[in-house]
Write a structure and sequence with these properties.
385 residues; mainly alpha; 11 helices
């Protein structure tokens, strides 16, 4: 549940974002909810960060396309470019859209009424795993900026970062203070603010939202099972519709900014990481090569864990409606039963959408099959030359 398991984690993450001024939202301790920032200076700083991130990511792309990089170096760089592009897409909010704030507050407000009478609700295994997963992600975000700093200390020419654009990067020495020191500090700052701002909504709306909706369906299933009279059944149907409205808000925000890049960019990074791990292990020096097995495992974990949980939203809501409809056949006849059956027929299954499609049970397998097939095609094309 958001209020009992994830809210503290979210407020902690948001507090770090506020230190970097990279998210146009803050936690109001008096109202106990997330509110938009209202300080003109903070708004200006956030918008400047958005523009800097856009220019920085564009420079990465141009470096990969027309820069003085070899093919192995370009493969090294494209994975990092994919990460920064994904984070930029998730972060971008130049016009200060309050949709993500509304979604988060709606989850919290809805739970206040839902959990009444279910204070002793048993936490599901999937929720416990998501809590552990979020803790791991929290420290991974912290480690990313430190990792970029250390990586550039060891190899200033590592693509697609700014120093790799210079043909003099190989002679850089960190013993003397110069422009390269300032670039190193800038790269570390960019990594920190990009990771914290880009992951804020992906983690605490997409990942946590999926887990919370599954919890709501679990509580609703308990209520529907124990409903005995017309009033209780009406309350169950009303609650399901409230969950459906929440799902519409959830999808409305995700489809505009997060779902498209998560579904496309992360599998693309996994494909590249698999290809490089198999074919270029003897061309890329350590420790640069180690990032590719890491990206491969991260991409696989994301695709399997997140998409599998997302597919459960559709399958479990479908099972819930079928079970509830079957229970109604055993109710006593009369106007109440006729009314409830009509109401039941008006209910639809929940879906996590991306574009015109939605995630079902087969989506995780389809994505992994696609990643493996594309990797094999790239390997075969390379071996035929």
């Amino acid at each position: 549940m958001y209020t009992t398991q994830f809210y503290t984690l979210m407020v902690r993450h948001l507090g770090l974002c506020r230190l970097l001024k990279c998210v146009p939202a803050k936690y109001d301790a008096n109202l106990k909810k997330i509110v938009p920032i209202d300080n003109p200076r903070d708004i200006k700083i956030f918008r400047i960060q958005c523009i800097i991130s856009l220019v920085y990511t564009t420079a990465m792309f141009l470096n990969l396309c027309v820069g003085p990089l070899t093919i192995p170096k370009k493969f090294q760089g494209v994975s990092f470019f994919g990460i920064y592009f994904l984070l930029l897409f998730c972060k971008w909010n130049y016009h200060l859209d309050i949709a993500p704030i509304q979604v988060l507050n709606s989850f919290v407000q809805f739970e206040k009424g839902l959990v009444k009478g279910h204070e002793t609700f048993k936490v599901s295994t999937q929720s416990q795993l998501m809590v552990y997963f979020m803790e791991i992600l929290h420290y991974s975000v912290m480690a990313f900026a430190a990792g970029v700093f250390c990586l550039l200390l060891l190899d200033p020419c590592f693509p697609p970062f700014l120093l790799s654009m210079s043909r003099q990067c190989e002679i850089i020495r960190w013993t003397n203070f110069g422009p390269e020191i300032l670039i190193l500090v800038f790269e570390t700052w960019m990594a920190a603010q990009a990771m914290y701002s880009g992951s804020m909504w992906a983690f605490y709306i997409l990942f946590v939202g999926i887990s919370c909706i599954l919890n709501y369906l679990q509580i609703l299933n308990s209520k529907m099972t124990h409903a005995k009279n017309l009033v209780e059944h009406k309350l169950c149907i009303r609650t399901y519709r409230q969950v459906h409205i929440l799902e519409k808000m959830f999808n409305g925000f995700l489809m505009a900014r997060i779902s498209p890049v998560v579904v496309t960019v992360i599998p693309a990074i996994q494909i590249i990481a698999q290809y490089v791990s198999v074919t270029m292990h003897d061309q890329i020096a350590m420790p640069g090569f180690l990032i590719f097995p890491l990206f491969m495992v991260d991409g696989f974990t994301n695709d399997v864990l997140v998409f599998t949980l997302a597919s459960w939203i559709n399958s479990r809501s479908k099972e819930l409606l079928e079970k509830y409809g079957g229970n109604m056949r055993h109710m006593a006849g009369g106007k109440g039963r006729t009314y409830l059956r009509k109401e039941m027929r008006s209910l639809n299954c929940l879906k996590l959408k991306f574009g015109s499609n939605f995630i079902d049970r087969g989506t995780p397998l389809i994505i992994q099959n696609f990643c493996l097939a594309q990797t094999m095609q790239l390997i075969m094309i390379r071996s035929s030359r």
